[in-house]
Each structure stands twice: as C-alpha cells, then as structure tokens.
C-alpha cells in the first residue's frame, strides 16, 4: 500500500451465512482480492475441532487473496491450548494477540500458521492464571541456568559425563555425541563403546574406556543411545544412581517400570517416530498433538521427556509444571546426527548439575541457537558453534 492511500480492509469476522456462503464464493474472492489487509476473526481462543464447513471458504479466500492476513489472537482453525490443527485453517502473515502468548502460537503444526506474532498488553495481567501451561525460556533465563566454573572448580567438581554411544554400524554417532558433551559445561567426558578410536581421532580430550559403563569410573551423569546397538550400556546406566539421558536406539523397547524404579532422574529425548513407538501410536498422531504426547510420555515413564522435531517440548512427569517450548529451533537442524549432538550436550548439562527439565530446555536452546549461527550446516558444525551460542546468551544478558 502506498503512503497516503486508503487501507482497504476485508474482515472475515462475518456472521456465518450457512449454505448461502458457498453460493457467494465468487463475491467473497472479489472482496478479498480488492483488500490490502484481511482481518481474520472467524474463531478466537475458544475455537475447537477445526473450522466448520461453512467457514472453510473464508479461510480459502483469505489464503488466495494476496492481502496481508492479520489474525486476531490466533489464525482461525487452530486449537489455542494445544497447537493442534484439524483440517483447514487460516494461514496468517501477522497474528496480534492479547494478554499472553497461547500454546497454539508456539507449538507446531499451529505455530507454522501464525506468521509474525505481536503481543499487545490490554490490561489482562490480573486475570491470567498464575502458572502458565507452557513457557519459553529467553536469553536471560538461560544465562541464569548455565553452569559457570568457580575459582575452586576442578574437572571433577564441574561434573563428569559418561557417553555410551556408537557401534560398528554407527561410529559417527559416538563422535557427534561426544562433540556435544564436550561443549556442555562438564569438566570431563568419558566415552564407553566400540568407537573409541574414532572419538579420540576427533576429540583427544576424551577419556576413553573399553569396558562396560559400570567399570568406566565415576560420572555425574550418563548420556546413552546414539548409534548404540545392544550391549550392557543402557542397563548399567539405568542401574546407576546418577541422572541419565536416553536417546535413539536405547529408547527402543525401553522398560517403563525400570525407568520409574530409578532413584536418580531420567531424561528421554525421542523424536516423533521414537515417541510414537513408546506410546504405541502413529508418528502422525504425535506430530499432530505434540503437547499431549510429551505429557503422556512423561507421565507413563515417570521421567522428564524432551520431544524433538520442528517444535521441541520438554515436560516433567508432574502435571503442575509448565511444559517448556524451545524458541530457538530452526529447520537447519533437520540433518542426520544433530540429535546425537543434543544428547551429549544435555548429558553434559546434567553432569554439571542442572535438573533434567533445565538441562533439556537449556540444551535445546543452545543447540538451536548454535544451528542458527552455523547455518548452512552439518551436525558437527552445531557442536562447534555451541560456544558462540553460549557467549551470545551471556553477553546479551550481562
Ligand atoms: N553419523 C551417525 O553415525 C548417525 C547415526 N545415527 C543413528 O542412527 C540410528 C537410527 O536413527 P534414525 O533416527 O535415523 O532412525 P530411526 O529412528 O530408526 O528412523 C528411521 C525412520 O526414517 C525413515 N526413513 C529412512 N529413510 C528415509 C527416507 N529416505 N525418506 C523418508 N523416510 C525415511 C524410516 O522409514 P521406512 O524406511 O521404515 O519407511 C524410519 O521410519 C540411531 O542410533 C541414531 O543415533 C543418526 O543419528 C544419524 C547420524
Ligand atoms: N524442522 C525442524 N525445526 C527445528 N528443529 C528440527 C527440525 N527437524 C529436526 N529438528 C531438530 O534436529 C534434531 C534431530 O534429531 P534426531 O531426529 O534425533 O536426528 P539424528 O538421529 O539424525 O541425530 C532434533 O534436535 C530436532 O529437534
């Protein structure tokens, strides 16, 4: 729109006209085509179960109009509380929301439809719940949680992380998990598995051990699973009294009772396919309902769960704590091995003393930020850029 010209606005907050609406589709398209802005207010935060048939032509017309689509609170057709999208929905360029962000603006598939989100304070503060359902860490929160060595620190006091990863088939997974672990704030990384030579060739700082985890020396946390094929690694880690992060192959056929019986915390880091297998569901179901899936897994396993993917969520087993949603994710992370880096990174944060929910959400935050700094990237570049992401978090928050 040129300066001084009149904005032409078409509002979708029309009364629903029933079957008549279908007959006026052409007229609707003409109205949309003439508008610079299209204001979508068909459904608000109470919308459930997807758009009703009568409203679908409005969403389609908005999508095809070429006007800037401005959604009021949420694009119509998305579920405000969960981020689910049933059927068709409006795709907005801008979403103007009031009082607080809604889960549907943060969690895919709905988050993909919001465009740029602007929060406007209209004085709703006193009426909002004291504890949100979902929260997102910002730089300052992460800076407060990151471990910092003190004057009295030594490599053991900073925490030692043990990495159980790799196999003859996937030696690279061991290298990538160790790369993440070396950047996560622990004072030392022990590697246990058949990939010792490959790990040392790339990371000479690593303490490599041949035997099973139970014989590898003391650690303050275990990171188990990337590229693993069998062996006593998982059982030894589960039997230990230190925190454990479990990923990839170690998640296959994971025994919920064994996890629940642990005396130390456990963090599971499945992608949607692994989460689906653990839940006995379809992958598409998990991707369509991430919030329910991560909560359900945390409850079933009595563990903290980090569900990976286009939106990363971290849930504790208790219903009371907000689910954390990661705000730094980027599609550049969709590359083989980036999850292995995350496993090592979160294991290292656990060893440095962070609680599982903090280790998972701080790990995901740094991982996403590192990927943004590194892009275009391969998985090892993500690990290489974690120190720059860490500095960025601390410098901006200083
Ligand atoms: N450098 C290393 O050492 C690395 C090692 N890694 C290690 O590998 C192990 C396996 O982990 P993962 O997550 O990749 O496999 P997994 O959970 O079994 O899911 C496989 C699913 O993908 C699908 N699929 C496959 N190809 C597809 C295609 N072209 N297009 C579309 N779909 C395709 C396939 O579907 P299907 O072919 O069965 O239809 C199936 O559903 C794990 O230990 C990990 O740590 C990785 O981290 C990478 C770096
Ligand atoms: N579209 C996306 N947007 C943001 N992050 C993504 C996307 N796709 C994948 N990721 C992230 O990339 C990583 C992939 O991990 P994973 O699925 O375990 O792969 P791999 O086993 O190859 O390492 C996870 O941290 C995940 O959250």
Any overview of this molecule?
The chain is of the alpha/beta class and 398 residues long. It contains 15 helices and 15 strands. The chain has helices at residues 20-23, 25-33, 56-64, 103-106, 139-145, 171-182, 196-202, 233-239, 256-260, 272-279, 283-288, 290-301, 338-351, 356-374, 379-397; strands at 9-11, 37-40, 68-72, 94-98, 116-120, 134-135, 160-164, 188-192, 207-209, 221-224, 244-246, 266-268, 304-307, 313-315, 323-325. Strands 6-15-14-13-12-11-10-7-8-9 form a ten-stranded mixed β-sheet, sandwiched between helices. Mean pLDDT is 92; it is low at 13-22. Bound molecules: ligand NPW and adenosine-5'-diphosphate. Adenosine-5'-diphosphate binds at residues 248, 271, 308-310, 312, 329-331, 333-334, 336-340, 342, 367. Ligand NPW is lined by residues 170, 172-173, 226-227, 248-249, 271, 273-274, 336-337, 339-340. Homotetramer. InterPro entries: CARKD, Ribokinase-like, YjeF_N_dom, YjeF_N_dom_sf.
Can you give me a brief rundown of this structure?
It catalyses: (6S)-NADHX + ADP = AMP + phosphate + NADH + H(+); (6S)-NADPHX + ADP = AMP + phosphate + NADPH + H(+). With 398 residues, this protein is α/β, with parallel strands linked by helices.
Main sheet: strands, sense, barrel:
10 strands, mixed
> Average pLDDT across residues?
92
Order of helices and strands: EHHEHEEHEEHEHEHEEHEHEHHHEEEHHH
What hetero molecules are bound to the protein chains?
ligand NPW, adenosine-5'-diphosphate
- Supply the number of helical segments: 15
Portion in strands: 5-15%
Organism: Streptomyces montanisoli
Domain YjeF N-terminal: 1-130
Family: In the C-terminal section; belongs to the NnrD/CARKD family.
EC number: 4.2.1.136
